[in-house]
Design goal:
Blueprint: E1 4-8, E2 13-14, E3 17-18, H1 20-32, E4 37-40, H2 52-66, E5 72-75, H3 81-93, E6 98-102, H4 111-124, E7 129-133, H5 135-138, H6 144-151, E8 156-161, H7 166-176, E9 182-185, H8 191-196, E10 201-204, H9 211-222, H10 226-235, H11 237-242, H12 250-258, H13 275-287
Parallel strand pairs: 1-4, 1-10, 4-5, 5-6, 6-7, 7-8, 8-9, 9-10
Antiparallel strand pairs: 2-3
Helix pairs in contact: 1-2, 3-4, 6-7, 9-10
Length: 291
């Protein structure tokens, strides 16, 4: 398990593939800022448009570069259980400390199917797994009763909750606090209320560009200093919202490029941030003295 903030890292690209120089620079920036864990090949890392060879090399590079300084969490989700199992085994062999497994997308399986999907993956590896619930992207929601079921699987140790449904998160945390299981927020914009429920931390997009700020907010919550956390949260609230002015990771990749962490290159069907979105994001970055 980890407690605190894990950055869902972007994958910097250049004209020929992955920009490993920029990736290494971003990783060092994160670690020096005090980040608690790093997620490779999460949604923000654009694995859906990467080849199998690229994903393998990104995992290998990240594990070597991070070198046990913080836990490496690798995204291995798929809508094909066989592929998710295979990718999870490969990630574990390459040195991943934990896995982040999103619900199967497009297929829209039943809750029973979700349980069997996660159980199959968990049985294939020995390292810890965090389930990832993001129904706006996948078309399927992990209901609290299903969370209770998968929480009983020994190496499924938590859930990244990005449903945006606070009521559902209350129910999940009520389950988690009575089991060996953790709730992690998957949404920067509601981190303070989610932490107030007793969540273990945040898997963050914004920490790609403001890691020390997100660490300060979350660790202040963990220490019970909600006054400081709320003050800092509202200082950066416009930025947190604007990083989702278009679908993630379009805005954060633009912002990272402005800070020198790679080029503003995405792969189709994702396209660069619109002129209006870019102008708005630059304004809020200036407001908090990022640029």
């Amino acid at each position: 398990m980890f407690k605190g903030v894990a950055t869902a890292l972007i994958t910097p690209f250049n004209s020929t593939g992955v920009d490993y120089k920029a990736f290494a620079k971003l990783i060092e920036f994160q670690i020096q800022a005090g980040i608690d864990a790093l997620v490779v090949l999460g949604t923000t890392g654009e694995p859906a448009t990467m080849t199998s060879e690229e994903k393998t090399e990104v995992i290998r590079f990240a594990v070597k570069t991070i070198n046990h300084r913080v836990p490496v969490i690798v995204g291995t989700g798929s809508n094909n259980t066989i592929c998710a199992v295979s990718d999870s085994i490969e990630a574990a062999k390459l040195g991943a400390d934990m896995l982040l497994v999103v619900t199967p997308y497009y297929n829209k399986c039943t809750q029973s199917g979700l349980i069997q999907h996660f159980a199959s993956i968990a049985e294939s590896v020995t390292i810890p797994i965090i389930a990832y619930n993001v129904p706006s992207r996948t078309g399927v929601n992990i209901l609290p009763a299903t969370v209770r079921a998968i929480a009983g699987i020994p190496n499924i140790i938590g859930i990244k909750e990005a449903s945006g449904n606070i009521g559902q998160m209350v129910e999940i945390q009520d389950i988690a606090r009575n089991m060996d299981f953790e709730l992690y927020s998957g949404d920067d914009g509601i981190i303070v209320p989610v932490m107030s429920l007793g969540a273990a931390g945040l898997i963050s997009v914004a920490s790609n560009i403001i890691p020390s700020v997100m660490v300060d907010i979350v660790h202040s919550c963990m220490d019970g200093d909600y006054s400081h956390a709320i003050e800092l949260f509202f200082k950066y609230h416009d930025l947190l919202n604007t990083l989702f002015v278009e679908v993630n990771p379009i805005p954060v990749k633009f912002a990272a490029s402005k800070l020198g962490y790679g080029e503003n290159i995405l792969r189709l069907p994702l396209t660069p941030l619109s002129e209006s979105g870019a102008a708005r994001l630059i304004d809020v970055m200036r407001d908090v003295n990022l640029i």
